[in-house]
Protein: Stage 0 sporulation protein A homolog
Organism: Blautia faecicola
Amino acid sequence: YITDEYLKPYTVFKNNMQDTYVDEMEICSEFEDGIAKREFQVFYQPVVDVKTGKIASAEALVRWFHETKGFISPGQFIPALEKGGYISELDRYMVRKVIECLEQRRKESRPAVPVSVNLSWMDFYDENMLEWIVSGLQCGGKEEEKMIRFEITETSLAAIGENHTRMLMRLRENGAKILLDDFGSGYSSFGMLQDYDFDILKIDISFVRNIGVNKKTESILRAIIDMAHQLGIRLVAEGAETEEQVAFLRENGCDYIQGYYYYKPMPQAEFLQLLEEGK
Ligand code: C2E
Ligand code: MG
Ligand code: MG
Ligand code: MG
């Protein structure tokens, strides 16, 4: 639709377009080089069990430390890599790195927890990628492979054609836990719960931010927690930063918390150190 924004002089519009275009082109054209130069790192953010305060699992989050441009945030390059068709290569890289890490832990008999990797809707159109994971799970199903979990947002799921969502269920049938990410932020949250089976639901950060601010949000949160439990699904609250938010989530029966209140995403070595310390 036409807004005032688009009625501004043509040059403004054109410049905006060009900036994004060039950035995205640059991101895509430098992606493979970045992989080769090991500029991409897996960061881990611990997920804490509300009852015990101990680390129950973690989420793998990609970080790009570009040789000349410095840190580029995932919020910027993930959408660009999706548009350019490179995201599956990145996600495959993440899965491989996480499996490597878990394998090492097993070989050295060191403590480990399950780790979830984010999937893009595009991964479902790259048959090879998910087939590769499923066959890994099927043949033998090594310990470390069973510890890999997958996160998908409801928005992503809505973008996948019916034929391709079968792959998600195949992952689950073969023992991988599936997490519904950013729950409540999309347009079909309840439809997703009705149509698919999930193991864990991740409550979107926008709800958590409103704890202590908006009474309506608090009621919605209680209802989400109750509903998930009735469906036999456990919950992770994303983005808890304050004592008040954590107290509310604990009192209302949320199972796990992932947020700066406990831990920020961190390099692998730091994360493994926490596990060594029995955190
Ligand atoms: P997400 O999967 O919802 O990940 C959670 C995001 O919330 C992460 O942002 C994390 O750093 C941030 N977060 C966690 N706790 C807090 C908190 O207490 N306060 C605040 N303000 N933020 C918190 P990050 O790492 O910037 O990632 C952004 C998004 O990029 C992710 O959202 C995910 O959708 C995507 N992403 C990240 N890594 C990958 C990847 O390897 N593959 C794919 N396909 N997507 C990825
Ligand atoms: Mg996620
Ligand atoms: Mg999320
Ligand atoms: Mg998100």
In short: The two ends are 52 Å apart (CA to CA). The CA atoms of residues 43 and 115 lie 11 Å apart. The pocket of C2E (ligand 1) is lined by residues 45, 61-62, 73-75, 78, 87, 90-91, 94, 118, 120, 151, 181-182, 238-241, 258-260, 265 (CB under 6 Å).
